[in-house]
Amino acid sequence: MCHQTVGLVQGFIETEGIPTVSIALLKEVAIRVASPRTLWVPYPLGYPFGEPSRPQLQGRIILSALALLAQRSPEPILVDLAA
Asked: In the chain, where are the structural domains located?
């Protein structure tokens, strides 16, 4: 449920002109909710930044998410971290 709620809140914030990005763990929910900008990560629930004690991976995830803020599109943007 929280994945859907975040996507809906994100869409509302975007209507106010504030860019947002979310990190999704469930790709099917991210597709269904169609958030404006989403980074999908292939990790289990509870680990949106990957495994503990992997600062390089965690930094890559954060930078990838922040990079999405610069992208604009009338269609939802869903980027796969693994790509």
From this structure: 2-80
